[in-house]
Amino acid sequence: MRRTRRDPIVTTVLTLLVGALLAGGWWALRSDPAAPAPAPAQAPPAAQREVTAQHSRQADRPVPRTFDRSAHSTTDPSSTWVIVNKSHPITPSQFRPELSIVRGYQVADPAAGPLTRLLDASDRQGLGFKIASAFRSYGYQDSVHKQLVAAQGEAAADRISARPGHSEHQTGLAVDIVTPADGRCDFEPCFAGTPGGRWLAGNAWRFGFVIRYTPENEERTGYSAEPWHLRYVGPALARELRETGAGSLEEYFGVPGGDYPPVP
Ligand SMILES: [Zn+2]
């Protein structure tokens, strides 16, 4: 192999020049606070993955969609995908979310904007929705349940009220909607047949909410149908549940629900 010999002076000058350039670049990076940070090696945040998945779903149709069921925790009570039921209590039991106020009620931060948009949209339809209940603390749920047990016995109390630590309302992601102007079906199964109940069943998903308890999934969720009880799960999962026809979070994630486990 033939090698070209370079004048030693030229080589020295070149070496110095390259060194100066490298040092200059390093100093610029060190001294310029606006210099772009190197790209992170880890995966993008979950929320970003959700949005990306949503976009690619829209763009890729009819190619089969893939939905990352592990994008969020179903056990962390601050996750919008958390599953709380009679066999999956909130852990830690005294959990309290970061809260925002929507129309005078406390809701978990991630649900606040979407709930406001849902209520604004319902107002434009003249549905007259009001929030009747949103975040409920462990202590509040405990006192309500104890009063019911004292008045009606535990079996009856369990049918109409969750035990403390077992209510979705403690996550701040659940809200109960009523229509005080015509309140005959407030907190009644017939709410599903009112204009408001029908609108929620058809549109809540657009804002990231699901009707958590329906007549079809009573056995699986362990709760009677509550067409007024909305649960925020985020728009991506709400759409996914709708498109796959999954009736409940328990069904979609393969998590047991049903009644309270027997006391040993
Ligand atoms: Zn509720």
Report on the architecture of this protein.
By secondary structure, the chain is α+β, with helices and mostly antiparallel strands. It has a single domain (67-253), classed as Muramoyl-pentapeptide Carboxypeptidase, domain 2 (2-Layer Sandwich). It has 9 helices and 6 strands; from the N terminus they run ααββαβααβαβαβαα. The protein has a 4-stranded antiparallel beta sheet with strand order 3-4-6-5, covered by helices on one side. A two-stranded antiparallel sheet has the order 1-2. A hairpin with a 2-residue loop joins β1 and β2. α4 (138-152) packs across α5. The longest helix has 24 residues, at 8-31. The chain is globular. The chain starts with 7 loop residues before the first helix and ends in an 11-residue tail after the last helix. It binds zinc ion. Zinc ion (ZN) binds at residues 133, 169, 174, 176, 226, 229. Zinc ion is lined by residues 133, 169, 174, 176, 226, 229. One of its GO terms (biological process) is proteolysis. Keywords: Carboxypeptidase, Hydrolase, Protease.
